[in-house]
Design goal:
By secondary structure, the protein is α+β, with helices and mostly antiparallel strands. It contains 5 helices and 11 strands. It binds flavin mononucleotide (FMN). Its cofactor is FMN.
């Protein structure tokens, strides 16, 4: 027998892409970073990624002002740090300093890359049409970096309220796509 699923729990089943760290660099401020799991791919090339960043976050203001960010994919080993980064704000915390993350200069944006990340995506805001309604920014990835030392690292996926899953077995099946 199927049971009723409360609507406020729907996101826990749809959400789990990799949890990413969104970095920003507002003028006259320290670099900042927030975990984000409400995102989706919108196009292949150039890569477009839709991101929901709550308007009460420091990151929202920085993103709106600079139109730039980095999306960094953390390895599973950083799960405690990821959770902690989401429970404080750049309005009053130097998150890179407190959580010992390594900011590295990006090539095309002012926001920093994260040295500990598996992949860093330099992004520019492409479309804010739905920013006012849904806090939704469409980002265009203009440069991507991969950390060869973390080739086998696992990503984490957020299931809400401090629950994460870790990448499991990789399956390869026939596909007409590259
Ligand atoms: C795993 C995880 C995923 C999160 N996903 C999002 C998200 O997709 N969008 C969002 O606005 N906040 C999300 N949050 C909450 C923000 O990270 C949190 O509000 C953070 O403190 C904002 O930091 P800031 O004020 O420095 O920008 C998430 C938090 C965690 C722990």
């Amino acid at each position: 027998m199927l049971k009723d699923l409360p609507l406020e729990r729907v996101y826990q089943f749809i959400e789990p892409g990799p949890t990413v760290l969104l970095t920003t660099q507002a003028p006259n401020a320290k670099p900042n970073v927030m975990p984000m799991s409400w995102h989706m791919m919108v196009d292949f090339e150039p890569p477009l990624i839709a991101c929901v960043v709550n308007q009460s976050n420091h990151s929202f203001a920085a993103l709106k002002e600079t139109g730039q960010c980095v999306l960094a994919v953390p390895p599973a080993e950083l799960v405690e740090t990821v959770s902690a980064l989401g429970n404080c704000t750049g309005n009053d915390t130097d998150k890179f300093g407190v959580y010992s993350l390594t900011p590295l200069p990006a090539a095309h944006v002012v926001a920093p890359l994260i040295g500990e990340a598996i992949v860093n995506l330099e992004c520019k805001v492409k479309d804010t049409t739905l920013m006012g309604t849904y806090n939704l920014f469409v980002m265009q990835c203009v440069k991507a970096w991969v950390n060869p030392k973390l080739h086998d690292a696992k990503m984490i996926h957020h299931h809400g309220f401090g629950h994460f899953s870790v990448d499991g077995e990789m399956l390869k099946v026939k596909s007409k796509m590259r």
